[in-house]
Amino acid sequence: MLNSLSGRFLILTAIFVMLAEILIFVPSIARFREDYLLTRLERSQIASLVLLADEEVTPDLQEELLRNAEVFNVVLLRDDARQLILSSPVPEPVAQTFDLRDAPAITLIRDAMMRLVTPDRQIIRVIGEPVRMGGMLIEITLDSSGLRAAMIDYGLRILWLSLVISIFTAVLLFLAVRVTLVKPIKRVVAAMQTYAAAPEDVRRVLRPTARVKELREAEETLQSLQTQLTGALKQKEHLAQLGGAVAKVNHDLRNILTSAQLFTDRIETSEDPTVKRLAPKLINALTRAVHLCEATLAYGKAEEPGPVFARLYLADVVADVIDSERLAAGDADVSFAEDVPGDLVVLADAEQLYRIIGNLVRNARQAIVNSGRPGEISVMADEDAAEWMIRVADTGPGLPRRAREHLFKPFQGGTTKGGSGLGLTIAAELVRGHGGTLILERSDATGTAFCITLPKGNFGATS
Question: TM spans, by residue (predicted)?
Fold first, then answer.
């Protein structure tokens, strides 16, 4: 109970209410002391009026008047003369004198606290102003023990009242906190526990119902996280199923492509100039397809083989990519441009570099064709002392907003309608395998540009 949020809130509320009551108690007890002394002054003035009206007052009557006023003597200042109106023996010397005329609040509070904490009996003198023009000054002498007893009694009554108020207030706040905070928090915790038992079940995703703004925001954030996690788990399941399907077709597809390679050997003997020119490209394409099939199963298991580094002319790889995409473009109004120095040698895996550049160029071609407008795709390369830079740019319509938000995420960052987004995911992973980076430099209505950066750190390690 005490370790719960509502229990601690209950205790803190009671403590704070008591502190507030203490702040109220101090000026209240000072006010009570002042009223007590003023009452004694008024009673003393009334008793003195009896003596002034009849000078033949007996000693017994004087004693009774002083006893009713609870004072030892009364002095009035009238017509600039001090008059001892009523008097009786004072048991002890006067210890303190208090002047209530225009006394500041801090002085009244200080005197009250001192009287409250001093248990010793004291004879005190009190000076005040008479009421109803009863003179210029009235002065009385009294025993302060009665004052202290009255103050303690008053303080205890305030204490009990404060205790009741604090408990009542704390209980109300306790109930309010349970209804407005604790129960909604417990509901969120229960929803999290239910969701954790079966995160794939979309029915267990939390539905925000809180009316408190902060709790509502927490529930909406949790709902978003649960929705994303459920989607990620489903995506993981789809990838696992895809891996199983790839495993089934990989063997047969590789055999079919191998057979196609055998047929191309006979095509090479053709005397047709066009066939002679295109046959090597067909053979290279089939070879890449066979290698890709062999690597597909490993990729489906998240075991993409590492790159086999070798020195190669970048212009040759780019030329193969451009030739393949130019054939794929067909009659579409897409032009290609290359700005790659012929003597630029890079250290990379030839097959993987082809896939990297090919995926970027293919995405650009598909975006331009789908837009229905003419466009150009350019591949540029440069180098400095530390790295090689390869830029693939186009004049297409730019990436959709969803693609920019989920760039390089499979099944989320597709750049074309119906696309899976795997092309950019594969390209980014292969670039990372080379120790480089693939970034989106720009994407707007004027086109899109990606930059591949490959480090030169391993250039001297391979011959």
Answer: 6-30, 158-177
